[in-house]
Structure formats: C-alpha cells, structure tokens
C-alpha cells in the first residue's frame, strides 16, 4: 500500500559532502536539517489562506511597518505584490479601494514618461512594470480609471532614451543595464501595444549574449566595440555574473516575448538586409540570434532541490533553496514549452517506445526494472512537466508559509511582500499547467481587425500569442485539500492572471478575444490515493 | 534604518534649510498601502523632493543625499541626483570613492552602491586599488552577485590593463581552494580563461585547455558531488567544441560505488575519487549518459537510456520527469531509428 502524501516516508538522504566540508556544504547541511523538520510535520499540507489574506490586508489598509522604508523606492512593487497576491488567492478589491489604488499609481507617473519608485522620484523600468501591472489589476478605461491616463507616447520616448548600442537598456538614466529591466520594458510595451521594431532591434542578441556556460542567464554582458566600425563585436562578450534564477526568468520570458519580432525581422520576405541600417545594427544582429535551449533546460531542472530540501528551487548552483525561485525557476518551465521543449506535443505516441526500449534494456539483466515506484501512478499519466510539481508544492506549503501569515524564503525567516507573491505564483505554476494553444491562437487571429499600419503584422502576432495561453482541462494538480489550496493560474509571461492580462490588452489593442470555456469543477482533483 | 544618530537634528530644524519648503509625498491624507515612515526618513525625503523640484545643485544637496542614502541605500533617485550634482559641482570623485567604500561594506547587497562605484571608476580610471577592496568585500560575502559582476565589469572595462589582470588566475585558484563549491568563483574562472578573449601568454589554447581539464578533474576527485566543477568541465568542452568522450576513462569510476580496495595511484589525467567520496555520483552518471547518447550507435543509446533510468528511479528521483524526457528526446533522434 502506498499513499501519495506521507511525509515520514520521505527520502532523507543529505546532499553528499564527500567527507570534504566547505562553507557551502556546512550551510547546506544546516538548512537541510531545518527543512527536514518542517517536512516531517504530519497532516495534509494546507495553504493558510486566511492568515495570508490577513497579512496582505494589514499591509494594504494599515500600512507597511517602518522597516519597509528600505523599499521606499519600490512603492509600485509593494502595491503590485500585494494586489497580485490577492488575485492569485482569488480575491478582488472593492471599488473604493480599487480607486484609491489607481489614484496612488497615477501619482507615480513621471511628467516625462514612465513610472517612478514613488512620487517625486525618477522614472525607472522596474517600477514601470509594477505600476502598469497594478493598473491591469485595479484600473479600467475612462476618466480616472487609470488606463487612459498612461501617457504611452512619453513612455515610448522614455524607453528609447534608455536604449544602448548593444540592444540593451539602462533601467534609468545613468543607471545599470540588466535583463530585469528588459523584461519589465517588454511586458509593459506588450501590454500597452507600443512594441516597434525600432524599440526591440538588437535586444534579442543582447539577451542571447547573457547565457552562461552553465545554461542559465547572467545579469548582463559586457560589449566590446570595433575600432573601425564602432559596432559591438561578436566576441568577446563576457557575462557579468553567473547563471541566476531571477535573471534567467527575465531573459527567457523576454526571449519568448521577442519571438514574433525575430520571426518577422528575419523572415525571407523582409530580412534585416532590406532595412535601412540603424545604430543597433551590430556585427551580430545581421544573424538571427540563438540560445542553447537544451542547456537552459538542464540548468533549470538542476535548480530544483532534492527530497531533503523538500523540492524547493535554488537560484544558483550550490546555493540554498529559496521560496521566491518557485516562480523564477518553477515558472520558467512553461516558457520552455513555448520554445518546444517538453510539453504535451512532445509526449504523445512516445510513451510506448520508451517502455519498449527500456524493457529491452531490462531484459539484458541490467537496470532497476522492478523499482518503478507505484506511488507516482495516477499523477504522472497526465503530468508532462519537466520539473517536480508535487515536490515544489510541498516546499511552499510546508516550509514557505509563515505561521503568522505571509510567505517567505525559508524557515526560520520572516515573511515579506515579495516572497508572499512569488511563493504563491510558484505554487500556482506548480498546480496549473498552461500552454500556448494553437486552436486558440488561430481563433484569435481570425477575429483580429486589421489596420493598414506598417506595424499591423507584428502587433497582430504579439497579441494573438499572448492570448493563446490556456490551461488544459483536467491537468491541474493540487497537493492538499483542493478547495482550500487551489489558486488562480497566472499568465506565464506577465505573472498577472489570464483575465487581467486579456482585459488590459483588449483595451489597448482595440481587439476582441475568443471566449474561454468555463473550467469544469472536476478539472481539479485532490491527489490522494491508497 | 539608522539608530546611531538619535540626536541628529532634522532638516526642518536646521537654519541652513529654512529657505526650502518641504514637499510631502502624497496630496491625499490616507493613501492606500502606505509605508509607516520614521520621522527622520519623512523629513529627509520631504526636503529631497523639494530640492529635486527646484533643480538645485549645491554642496548641501550632497549633504542631504548622503543622509538619505544612509537611511535608504536603495533610493536610486538620491544616488542619481547625487551623481549629477557631483559632476555639476566638479566635486572630488576621489573623496566620493572613499565615502562609497564605507557605504559598500555596509550595503553589499544594494545595486545602487555598486553602480555608483562603477560610474566613479569610469571617470577616475583607477582600477588597480579596486582589487584589494573587492577581496575585502568577498571576505564578508564570498558569493555576493554584485561584487562578482562588478569585478567582471572592472576587468572587462580595463581589458588591456596587464597589471590589473596579471594576478587574476591565482586569485581565482585561491578562491576555489577556499571553497571548492563556490560557484561564483568557478564562473569567474570561466570569465577569466574563456570569456574575455585570448590574453598574452595564453595563445597556446591546447595547453590552456589541458590545464583547465586537469584543474577541474582534480577538484572533482576531491569532492565529486560538486555541480560547480562538473558544469565547468562541460563548459570547457562545449566552448572549445570538444567531445565529452575525451573524458570517458576519467568519468567511469565516479559512476559506480566506491571501490574500497582501490590503491592510491597518481594519475594526473584521470585522478580517482578520494576515500570519502559518496558514489555513484549523479553528475558523473549524467555525463556518461551524454557520452553514450552522442556515440550514435544503438547499443550506446541503450546504455544511455539505462543510465537515465537509474537516475530517474534511484539516484536522482526528484528529477525523474527530466530524465524520462531525456530518454524520449534521445529516442526521437535519427540514431535511434
Ligand atoms: Zn528569495
């Protein structure tokens, strides 16, 4: 007899230190001891929804305690993390508080375009993403609704003012270049319908240059310029920093967001050679940039901690697991599927072959054929994800929740707004498996209203791709009591809910989206088996 | 928040600020989701908003931004405004660097303090004293992302400075010796050896590759279950388009349980696992499976499948889905037909 959830039967093999302790292995061991204690707790892992809602409501209505002054330049983030955590928990705000939120967000818009970390601060790409996404949640069209108050023309100029010769962007005037800023810019531009070839030329090439030998992405790369042409050289293009979960999510999501531009720009009809040269032409941008998806996949799966780490994700090789990487790494897997790695299409008709070839190998007397553990059946027959969805949910539920409400990096740390959202989004990504649906994309394309602008083809492709993400019916997998633990799915590229993503895009593109089937309640079942 | 200067007067109490009308943050009385600021913080930011609005560039702006940065080192606008003010006043950037030193030690995890440093060094063009400074930072936090990426920026920006570069391989060697599992150090090694082009004295690439392979294999033999070293090993081969099968003989002893009767042999090319090694090692099995997959014949492919299955079902069960994906993926390739 086996049961799906039995913590005391967990594999508890510590990470091998090979009798050679170093600073890394010592702190790893310490962490494993703490996590193991949490993993041993009895009973079904349950999301303490009410405690988390109280935590969020306290911050929102009473305010953030004084230690949050360190995030005074990230006020849009504090609001976005809070609003989006409510959304993931399937809670909406009353109209009065929605309007108060809209008013506050609009006070962050800079007269020269873009949003600031707070009133009177400078515009910056990161708070711009947070402010626009917060408006997607609480805003609406019309006067005072927030959406039509966004100055998109000035925002576009602000974006262009930050662009660098290597296709990257500074996060603000004089400030650093990194892939977080690019992600924030691309999501904002995609939601608000201001992507142009001019804006994104060379950016994919920059992103590709940030992939490290490990497979994940670094914060940035360093450009070298040719003395003769003053253009960025193909090599050397060293990474600044090692492969990192946060940067990897941002780079991968940006890469996916740029696919339509790349496909149009490098298509046979209008190759880059046909276009007038621009300052973002480099030796490199004459070729379609590429990333090593196989290597990236390997690195991402390697970031998942083992059973003794309760299956949480770490952000770098040989670092500790941390709840926020549940989203940055756990949320990246469906993006890989958008690039053709793993996923449903990959699976069909292959299972038979795997079993065939394996039984051949097993007949030779080798391989632990009899050890196929039964306990995974029933879960796996429909789960085609490349990471361990069940284990990630356990990490968040058993170690990520602070008993007093809010979620955290790991015990015994305190909860904070950032970890609360990214643990919840990660939990959601582990529960729901979304994929870009070809039929839905075709449907969206068929109702697109063309205009005669030169950007029609690009805008259409971007819009229809964003709308194409769906959750396959019956593929949600929820650890613990399903009615309590179930979260809303979020859009893999924006980390907003699907309906908030579609709502704001419909408005700015002036387009309609096909209706979505109402999900059957039987689509999510509690996984418990004896 | 700072607690050290409880008695420090507020800007609103100082006569030299009496001409400035502070600007409160929000016009509404009760904005949603407020931060419950301390009195000092509210005071400093109210005056900062007034200064920014007036566009004032003066010595007292440096004073104000220094105080604000001390209260909140992540206040990027304060840094940005301070930088512009330094330039417009032609202030001493040497003095600013000194001040930044102490702020850097204090706020190692803040983006802004590191970027400010970058702006200063870009102007000052004095990279050399940065190295001992960075070493002190790494002594406090050996994996700090900002410190490492700053070091890599510094070396890239001053790529032709031989004095800056000459000790870097020794430095990274020592850092890896301190903690063989420090991935930041391994990444830095890749940056130094392969990331920045070929340096003088390193033109003989065959020799460099051999040196790197031996270095990595020795470190694997010391602590085999170290993904940083295995990833670096893959990095050397991938970057130089070398086949993984070059290392078949080295890898094999790491894919099976430790042989308790093994005699100590000194083999630089194929250093064996140390006595305490916990084998088989997942990364070695994975490596051997990759070698077999690449070999291209059906028998090798079956061997690879068997290795992946052993990872899926026994040695690396958390990643079972991935190893099964590798099996499927390999079976789709022409070699399996
Ligand atoms: Zn974290």
UniProtKB/TrEMBL annotation, chain A:
Q: Which GO terms fall under biological process for this protein?
A: prenylation
List, alphabetically, the Pfam families matched.
Prenyltrans
Q: Please tell me which top-level EC class this enzyme sits in.
A: transferase
**Enzyme Commission identifier(s):** 2.5.1.58
- Can you cite an annotated GO cellular component? protein farnesyltransferase complex
Q: Please share the entry's free-text remark on the cofactor.
A: Binds 1 zinc ion per subunit.
Highest rank taxon of the organism: Eukaryota
Cofactor entry: Zn(2+)
Give every Prenyltransferase alpha-alpha toroid domain span: 47-495
Keyword terms: Metal-binding, Prenyltransferase, Repeat, Transferase, Zinc
Q: Which residue windows does the record flag with biased composition (Basic residues)?
A: 1-13
Checking InterPro entries in the record gives: FTB (IPR026872), PGGT1B-like (IPR045089), Prenyltrans (IPR001330), Terpenoid_cyclase/PrenylTrfase (IPR008930)
Recall the GO molecular function terms of this protein's record: protein farnesyltransferase activity; zinc ion binding
Q: Which reaction does it catalyse?
A: L-cysteinyl-[protein] + (2E,6E)-farnesyl diphosphate = S-(2E,6E)-farnesyl-L-cysteinyl-[protein] + diphosphate
- Which SUPFAM superfamilies does the record cross-reference, listed alphabetically? Terpenoid cyclases/Protein prenyltransferases
Q: Which Gene3D superfamilies match?
A: 1.50.10.20
Which parts of this chain are annotated as the region Disordered?
A: 1-21, 511-530
Describe the subunit structure: Heterodimer of an alpha and a beta subunit.
Please report which protein family the annotation says this sequence is part of. Answer: Belongs to the protein prenyltransferase subunit beta family.
Q: What does this protein do?
A: Catalyzes the transfer of a farnesyl moiety from farnesyl diphosphate to a cysteine at the fourth position from the C-terminus of several proteins. The beta subunit is responsible for peptide-binding.
What is the name of the protein in this document?
Protein farnesyltransferase subunit beta
UniProtKB/TrEMBL annotation, chain B:
The EC number on file is 2.5.1.58, 2.5.1.59
Q: What class of enzyme is it?
A: transferase
- Which cofactors, by name? Mg(2+)
- Mind telling me which Pfam families this protein's record contains? PPTA
Which GO cellular component terms, listed alphabetically, does the Swiss-Prot or TrEMBL entry include?
CAAX-protein geranylgeranyltransferase complex; protein farnesyltransferase complex
Q: Which SUPFAM superfamilies match?
A: Protein prenylyltransferase
**GO MF entry, a single one:** CAAX-protein geranylgeranyltransferase activity
What keywords would UniProt list here?
Magnesium, Prenyltransferase, Repeat, Transferase
Q: Does the keyword Lipoprotein apply?
A: no
InterPro entries documented for this protein? Prenyl_trans_a (IPR002088)
Which parts pass through the membrane?
none
Per the record, the similarity remark reads:
Belongs to the protein prenyltransferase subunit alpha family.
Q: What is this protein called?
A: Protein farnesyltransferase/geranylgeranyltransferase type-1 subunit alpha
Task: Say which species the protein is native to.
Answer: Macrolepiota fuliginosa MF-IS2
């Amino acid at each position: 007899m086996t049961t799906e959830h039995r913590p005391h039967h967990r594999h508890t093999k510590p990470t091998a230190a090979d009798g050679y302790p170093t600073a890394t292995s010592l702190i790893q061991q310490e962490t494993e001891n703490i996590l193991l204690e949490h993993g041993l707790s009895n009973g079904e892992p349950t999301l303490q929804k009410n405690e988390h809602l109280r935590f969020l409501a306290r911050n929102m209505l009473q305010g953030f305690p004084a230690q949050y002054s360190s995030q005074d330049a990230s006020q849009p983030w504090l609001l976005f993390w809070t609003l989006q955590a409510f959304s993931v928990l399937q809670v909406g705000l009353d109209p009065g508080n929605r309007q108060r939120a809209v008013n506050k967000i609009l006070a962050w818009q800079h007269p020269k375009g873009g949003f600031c970390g707070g009133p009177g601060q400078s515009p910056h790409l990161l708070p711009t993403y947070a402010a626009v996404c917060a408006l997607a949640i609480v805003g609406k069209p019309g006067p005072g609704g927030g959406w039509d108050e966004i100055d998109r023309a000035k925002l576009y100029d602000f974006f262009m003012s930050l662009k660098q010769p290597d296709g990257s962007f500074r996060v603000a005037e004089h400030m650093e270049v990194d892939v977080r800023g690019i992600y924030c810019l691309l999501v904002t531009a995609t939601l608000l319908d201001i992507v142009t070839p001019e804006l994104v030329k060379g950016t994919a090439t920059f992103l590709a240059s940030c992939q490290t030998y490990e497979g994940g992405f670094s914060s940035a790369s360093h450009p070298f310029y040719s003395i003769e042409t003053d253009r960025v050289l193909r090599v050397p293009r060293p990474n600044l920093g090692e492969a990192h979960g946060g940067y990897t999510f941002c780079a991968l999501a940006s890469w996916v967001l740029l696919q339509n531009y790349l496909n149009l720009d490098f298509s046979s009809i209008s190759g880059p050679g046909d276009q007038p040269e621009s300052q973002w032409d480099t030796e490199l941008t004459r070729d379609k940039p590429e990333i090593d998806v196989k290597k990236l996949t390997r690195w991402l799966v390697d970031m998942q901690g083992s059973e003794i780490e309760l299956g949480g994700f770490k952000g770098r090789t040989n670092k500790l697991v941390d709840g926020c990487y549940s989203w940055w790494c756990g949320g990246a897997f469906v993006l890989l599927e958008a690039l053709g790695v793993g996923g449903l299409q990959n699976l069909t008709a292959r299972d038979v072959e795997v079993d065939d070839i394996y039984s051949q190998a097993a007949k030779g007397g080798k391989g632990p054929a009899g050890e196929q553990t039964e306990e995974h059946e029933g879960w796996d027959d429909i789960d085609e994800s490349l990471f361990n969805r069940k284990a990630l949910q356990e990490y968040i539920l058993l170690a990520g929740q602070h008993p007093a409400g809010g979620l955290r990096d790991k015990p015994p740390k305190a909860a904070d707004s950032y970890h609360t959202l990214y643990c919840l989004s990660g939990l959601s990504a582990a529960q729901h498996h979304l994929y870009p649906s070809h039929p839905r994309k075709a449907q969206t394309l068929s109702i697109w209203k063309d205009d005669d602008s030169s950007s029609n083809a690009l805008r259409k492709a971007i819009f229809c791709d964003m709308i194409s993400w769906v959750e396959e019916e019956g593929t949600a997998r929820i650890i613990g009591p399903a009615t309590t633990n179930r979260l809303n799915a979020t859009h893999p590229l924006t980390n907003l809910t699907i309906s908030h993503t579609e709502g704001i895009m419909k408005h700015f593109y002036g387009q309609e989206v096909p209706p979505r089937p109402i999900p059957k309640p039987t689509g999510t079942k509690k996984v418990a088996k004896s | 928040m700072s607690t050290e200067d409880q008695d420090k007067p507020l800007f609103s109490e100082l006569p030299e600020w009496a001409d400035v009308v502070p600007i409160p943050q929000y016009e509404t009385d009760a904005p949603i989701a407020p931060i419950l600021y301390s009195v000092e913080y509210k005071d400093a930011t109210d005056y900062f908003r007034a200064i920014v609005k007036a566009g004032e560039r003066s010595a007292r702006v440096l004073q104000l931004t220094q105080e604000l940065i001390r209260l909140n080192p992540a206040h990027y606008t304060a840094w940005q405004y301070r930088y512009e003010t330094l330039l417009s006043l032609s202030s001493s950037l040497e003095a600013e660097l000194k001040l930044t030193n102490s702020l850097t030690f204090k706020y190692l995890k803040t983006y802004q303090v590191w970027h400010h440093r970058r702006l200063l060094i870009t102007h000052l063009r004095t990279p050399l004293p940065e190295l001992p400074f960075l070493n002190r930072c790494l002594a406090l936090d050996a994996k700090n992302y900002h410190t490492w990426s700053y070091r890599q920026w510094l070396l890239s920006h001053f790529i032709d400075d031989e004095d800056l570069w000459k000790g870097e391989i020794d430095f990274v060697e020592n850092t890896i010796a301190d903690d063989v599992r420090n991935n930041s150090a391994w990444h830095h090694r890749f940056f130094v050896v392969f990331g920045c082009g070929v340096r003088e004295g390193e033109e003989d690439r065959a020799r460099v590759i051999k040196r790197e392979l031996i270095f990595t294999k020795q470190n694997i033999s010391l602590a085999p279950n170290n993904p940083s070293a295995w990833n670096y090993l893959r990095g050397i081969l991938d970057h130089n388009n070398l086949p993984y099968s070059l290392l078949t003989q080295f890898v094999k002893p790491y894919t099976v349980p430790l042989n308790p009767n093994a005699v100590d042999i000194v083999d630089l090319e194929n250093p064996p696992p140390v006595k305490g090694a916990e084998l088989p090692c997942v990364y070695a099995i994975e490596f051997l499976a990759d070698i077999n997959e690449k070999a291209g014949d059906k028998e090798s492919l079956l061997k690879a499948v068997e290795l992946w299955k052993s990872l899926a079902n026994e040695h690396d069960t958390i990643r079972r889905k991935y190893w099964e994906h590798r099996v499927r993926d390999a079976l789709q390739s022409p070699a399996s037909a």
